[in-house]
Each structure stands twice: as C-alpha cells, then as structure tokens.
Specification:
By secondary structure, the chain is of the alpha/beta class. The protein is built from 15 helices and 16 strands. The strands form two sheets. Strands 1, 2, 3, 4, 5, 14, 15 and 16 form an eight-stranded mixed beta sheet that branches. The protein has an eight-stranded parallel beta sheet with strand order 6-7-8-9-10-11-12-13. It binds N-(iminomethyl)-L-glutamic acid and fe (iii) ion (FE).
Amino acid sequence: MSYLFTNIRQLIQARTIAPEKVAGKEMANLPCINDAWLRIEGEFIHTFGQMNECPEPGNDHVIDLAGKLVFPAWCDSHTHIVYAGSRETEFVDKIRGLSYEQIAANGGGILNSAAKLHQASEEELFQQAKGRLDEMIGFGTAAIEIKSGYGLNTVDELKMLRVIKRLKENSQIVVKATFLGAHAIPQAFRQNRDGYIREIIEQMLPVIAEEKLADYCDVFCDKGFFTVEETDMILAAAARYGLKAKIHANELDYSGGIQVGVKHQALSVDHLEYTGPAEIEALLASNTMPTLLPSTAFFLRLKQPPAREMIAAGLPIALATDYNPGSSPSGNMPFVLSLACINLRMTPEEAINAATINSAYAMGLSQTHGSISPGKKANLFVSKDMPSYAYLPYAFGSGRVHKVMIDGKFQIFEC
Ligand code: NIG
Ligand code: FE
C-alpha cells in the first residue's frame, strides 16, 4: 500500500539526511516544510516536498490533510509499564506531606509494586501492560523501552522480562527491554545488600543473557538506593554479557550516577534533577544521552533538572515519560512536551527534537526512527487541526493527535 498525503499544513522534523542526535544550539533547529506533501511506500517514508511540486499520485491512496500537521511518532526511551495494579494511596500520602524517600523507607514505593507483582500471573501482567501500551500509541508513540525492576528476585524479574518479550512479539511498535534488577533492595535482603547484588550478578544476569531477555541493563544509582560502587559492579557484569547500560541517576541527589554511567559508556543516563558543572563536564566528554523525565519531577514535586544550562553547555537532551505506578502514572508524551516547555523552559523545537531524534538515539533506533526521512519507518501521527507545531505543547492536556500510522499502517487508536 502506498499513500500520498497532500496539503499538510506543516510537515515536522523533515530531514533528507537525519543526524543520529542533535545537541546544544542545534536542538533549536527543527526542519519543517509548510504546505507539504508526503509519500509513504509500504512500511517506509519515501519522499516529501512542497505542494507546488506535488507528484502525480499514480496508484497512491491520496489523503488531503488540509489544516493538519504531520509529526514523526514519539520514541519513549524510559518506561516501566509492566506492573500490577496502582499506587494511588501513596499519591494521597504524598499530598499529606510524606516524601518519595519516606514512603520507600516504610516499605511502600517500589517494594509495594514488587509485592503486587509477585501475586500477579504473567497473563494478568501482559494484559495490563498491553492496555497501557495501546493507550500510548494513541498519544503518538511508536517505539518504547520497558524496564523490569518490580520483581526483585530471580523468578519475578524473569517473569517481568518474559512479559516484556511477549509485548515485543505482540505489539505493532518496537519494544526494547531493560533489566532493572537493581531498582531497590528487596525486604529479604535489607541486612544483606551484597547478597542481593550477588543474586543479580550470579543468578539473574546469566539467565537473562542466555535467554536474550534484555537489550540493556539499568541500576537506580541514587541516595537510598544503589551506591556508585554497587552500580559499577553491576554494570561491569552486565557488559560481560553484552548488555549496554541505561541508568537512573541523580534524581534524588548528586549521586555520582552520571559519572559512573559515563564511565560505562551508558547509552543514556536518565532523570538528572541533580546535575551540576561536574556532571555536565562528564557528559560533554561522552556519547551518553542525558534523558529528562519532566512528568516525574512534576508528579513528585522534585527540583527541576537544569535543561537550559545543559543545552547552553552544548549537550543533547532526550525526553521520556518514565510511565510507572509510583512517580509518573502516565504515558502521555504530548503532556511531557508541555512540561518540558513550561517547567524546563525548553522551546517547542528543542522539546520535539528531544522526544523524537534524541529519544530514538537513547534506545538505539537512530537509523529507523525519530524523523521524517526517506528510508525510515513510516511511523508518524497526523494532528487535529492546529495553526503550528508550538500549539501542541501549548494546548497542554488536550488530545491533539488525530491518527497514528505505524510502519505504514493507520492504527485505530485515537485519543
Ligand atoms: O523512574 N526512580 C526510580 N524508579 C522509578 C519509580 C518507580 C516507582 O516508584 O515505582 C522512576 O521514577
Ligand atoms: Fe524510571
């Protein structure tokens, strides 16, 4: 099947040759074509241009998109959508004044989700996660990374990773799997941290590698969770099995997480609320993608990461939802863009680059995803009528996605 879209008000992120990432001042450059056409052939983007040079349709299915914009689909490079139930009681505890760390120290938080996940069958977990994933496609997302980390023992971590594998096999969109056994120290190992780290390295990693259950390895390197030394050991072990690092760092403190991630050539380091000159310097000397999760900072009322300083220093930034039951119970990428603009003071151009090209890089998909480029996957969404791309983050919370196309096929989800 081939399509010719005509009269597109703005074709966003249209790049004949796409860079693998954009950094610093380049983040403000968002190539767009006003009054455009776009041709899709099979699964792939074929060609595009301005309406005054529109080709004859031939056998193409022609769709007139007058008034609408076409965006590349979002890449959501950091989520935890395999979980059981929800944690709105902790949401209320936070309103009453408890902090995320206090809730975690009392056995809530990640440990609460681990207890719920332990009770749930693979089938229940799959059905719940599939519902979340389908909803995310409706927000315009066409690639997603999913982490384990609510198992916290060998059996349950493997159960989560098998559910992620099933999602990979049964979803229209690309799914990348990340092993996050080091998400929290489980209750049974509270007095024996080393024992749990040994279980990760000696029991979990060999099976995960053998069964090819993960693409990446993550550690929550932060105050009250895993130390730099522990992170270093786990990432070194993961590397021996060919798993690249993608880690949680500096959400709660200047934890050293960014530096240890860079040391291990992490594909991305994520959260980064606590990023100062030393962290920026380390990132500048690396190929690691700094990834910000503005809906988590919003939901937990954290200090905001210094996006402007990072861009001014010449760094790239990626954006993701962090969809999880404790700190970001939402997979709404357009809302993440609004928060990036409002709270991080990123411009719409920077936010769109961060949620497409740069987030594709943060999940190893630069070649196929992240821009409207000939030869890349025809993964895009058509907006409802709007005057310009800046309207999308501006009109926060209002569903502006009209139709989503994955691999050249229109999806039935709409939001
Ligand atoms: O990315 N920061 C660590 N992990 C998750 C939260 C997990 C949870 O609270 O369930 C996050 O925010
Ligand atoms: Fe996370």
